[in-house]
Each structure stands twice: as C-alpha cells, then as structure tokens.
Design goal:
400 residues; mainly beta; Neuraminidase; 2 domains; five-stranded antiparallel beta sheet; 50% strand
C-alpha cells in the first residue's frame, strides 16, 4: 500500500472517532509548491487578515532569496520576494517567518551574518503595506551590536494592530562565551516603531526554536526550552499581561539534564484560553513527544499525553481542531529515514496516528510545518533528493 493510500484509509478511521467539531478529515490532496528546486526552510503562518502564507528560502547564484506564496482557491499564488542577500545565515533549524495584521500589513524576518563567528548573526525585519509587492528597509529588533547569535524568532500579530517579536539573544556571550542565552521581546508598530519589552527569561537553551500565540484573554504566551543552572532543559512558558512578563512556568517536569542544546523546540497552539504545548524530550535516555493542555490561558497545564511510537526525532508542530482536539505532527525515525506523523490528541488521550510522508532523518530535512485555515489543515515539509523539494498537502476538516 502506498503512503498516500495508507493515509487516506487511516484518516477515515481516525477521525470518525473524533466527537464534535471535526467530524472527520477528507482525503489528502498533494498540492504543487512554487518553491524552486533545492529550496529549504518551509514555514506556514495564518494572518489576522485570514490568509495563509507559505514562506521558504530559495537558492540564488550568489546567495539566497526569502520568498512567499498565499493559499488561494485551493492552490498557491505566484511567489513574491521579501528580500535577497549574499551574507545570510541559512540554517536547518533557525528559519525565517511571516505574520500579518488584520489590515494586511505584513512583517517578515530573516537572518543576516554579523561577523566571522559560526553563530554571529542578526535578526532582520521588514514591513510591507501592499501585500508583499514591496518591502521597507530592513531593521533589527536588537541594538546591542554584538557579533553573537540572535535568532529563533516568534512573530505574533496582535489584534490591536501591532506585532510581538520574541527571539533568542546571545549578547551576554560577547565577552564571556559561557554566558547565558536570553529570551527577549519587543513590540513593533505598523509604522516601524520598535518598543523594547526587555528580557523574558535570563537563561534559556541556546538554539531551540520558540513559539508564541495570542491567548483568548489578550495575553501573549511564549513557549521555549528553558535551562537551569544544573543543565535541566525542560519546556517553559511565560505570559505577557499588559506590559509585564510572568515568571517562567514549567509545562512538565521531565527533568531532561543535557549539557548541550538538542535543537528541538516546542510548539504552542490553541483557541481562546484552551491551548496545547507539544515538545520533544529524552529524559532518562527515553526519547518522547508529548502534548500538554491548558484551559486557563497557559497559567497551568494538565499531565502530558505521549504521542510518539518509540523512536521520535521530535521537530514538532501543532494545529487546533474544534472542541479541544489538537493535531500534533512530528518525525519518527526509521533507520536513516523518518516518517512525518500526524496524530489527534486531547487531554484525555490520543487517537491513531497518521503517516503523512517519508523524509530524511538527517538535519537537512528540517522541520515540517502545519497550520489550520478555516476547515483545512495544510502541511509543508522538505522532501530529500537531488534536488530536494518543498512539498505541501491539504486535508479538509469535515463537518460533524
């Protein structure tokens, strides 16, 4: 049985069991992606303008281009270019992103080298007020001027008409290489005015991605891999209520003590004040992917639900269905290959997993991405080969 036919058969069985809201998933439709061969770092973002944006990094003869397309009428639009450059930091785990306000104002970020060091790079931001046809002069959300790591950005579009920016900031490593990585925040207005939000957490994991969302009560919630003085690197969340960040809250005490960064950040998604966090851990030398739910906007979390099959690589993402169901995606290793799995889960447990596609277990396969737009679930991932290609698929959420 092919992976596509297996997926189609499994979907009908899995989502027939989901009560309320979902009703089921239609058969997957694999959609041509307009990214050029050897493109990488696919990412998905649903804007407050109701559009779904697919972005990626595309090779150029003398550098790279950051490009995007919009999901319209069941296909991807003609791509547009955000920026091009020959001095970018292009990395399998630290990739560009986009966000959109309700009026269609777009924000995009990418990474530019700031020095000769391996991880000397800056976050570059730009705004567009015409749907991405033109973009403003790039600028940085940080002004420390150090040739250190600045990346793993989360962009959140706020209904009040601004963007919240969160990133890992290595400025304290400039003079002391063993200095802590920090998680920092800034607010960006549509006119380009930046307001520093200061330090969210003063000691975090060095190179695990962050993820953030807007809770139903108006707070911004960020999920990230924390780092204790004893090198325990579990997942924490922090909430921005008004202008004040809460202290870090551990999602679950895995107790993963590891002296190096696993390059495997969490995902957070939700609806209103019901949300879920998914993450990878290998505490006690047992790799797992888990999902924990919160019903109070991220102030507390239920016991986690394990969703993997025993050999997960992590690289998780989340989408939310109705009535508290979340869809979690992750990579499960099978020799030198890996399978992208999708699994419905809620606080009471998980349903049968769904194989989506096969990719490499190597880092070059990147992070598969997933998003919900209306009654559709859209996935994007990198397919290995010579050349490699970005693939996308859509599955329809059926009414109850």
């Amino acid at each position: 049985m092919t992976i596509r036919s297996l997926l189609s058969a499994t979907i009908a069985l899995v989502f027939a069991a989901c009560s309320g809201g979902t009703g089921g998933l239609g058969e997957p439709r694999f959609v041509d992606c307009p990214a050029a061969p050897d493109s990488q770092a696919p990412n998905l973002a649903v804007g407050l303008d109701g559009e779904l944006y697919l972005s990626w990094v595309e090779p150029r003869e003398n550098g790279h281009a950051f490009r995007f397309s919009i999901w319209r009428a069941g296909q991807w639009s003609t791509p547009r270019t955000v920026a091009e450059g020959d001095d970018w930091f292009v990395n399998w785990a630290d990739f560009p992103s986009m966000a959109a306000l309700e009026d269609g104002t777009l924000a995009a970020h990418w990474l530019v080298r700031s020095g000769s060091g391996t991880y000397a790079y800056d976050v570059n931001l730009s705004l567009s007020h015409d749907g991405g046809a033109t973009w403003g002069e790039p600028f940085r959300p940080h002004d420390d001027g150090t040739e250190t790591e600045h990346g793993f950005v989360s962009l959140v579009a706020a209904p009040e008409g601004r963007f919240e920016i969160l990133w890992l900031d290595g400025r304290q490593m400039a003079d002391t290489p063993s200095g802590p990585m920090t998680l920092r925040h800034a607010t960006l207005d549509p006119d380009g005015r930046l307001t520093s939000g200061g330090v969210v957490d003063d000691r975090v994991c060095d190179c695990c991605s962050t993820d953030a969302l807007r809770a139903g009560d108006g707070a911004t919630l960020v999920a990230y891999r924390d780092r204790s003085d004893s090198e325990v690197r579990d997942i924490s969340v922090a909430r921005l209520d008004g202008s004040t960040w809460s202290s870090a809250l551990s999602v679950h005490a895995d107790g993963w003590e590891i002296p190096a960064c696993p390059v495997n950040g969490p995902a957070v998604e939700g609806s209103g004040n019901v949300m879920a966090v998914a993450w990878f851990s290998a505490a006690r030398e047992t790799p797992v992917v888990q999902v924990a739910f919160s019903t109070d906007g991220g102030r507390s979390f239920d016991a986690p639900v394990r969703v993997d099959h025993g050999s997960p690589l992590g690289r998780v993402d989340l989408a939310f269905a109705d009535d508290g169901w979340a869809l979690v995606s992750w990579l499960e290793q099978e020799g030198e290959r890996a399978t992208i799995f999708l699994r419905p889960v809620r606080a009471s447990g998980a349903l049968e997993s769904i194989p989506i596609a096969t990719t490499d277990a190597a880092r070059s396969s990147g992070f598969p991405r997933m998003a919900r737009l209306g009654d559709e679930i859209v996935l994007a991932w990198t397919e290995p080969g010579e050349p490699s290609r970005i693939r996308t698929a859509v599955l329809s959420l059926l009414p109850s």
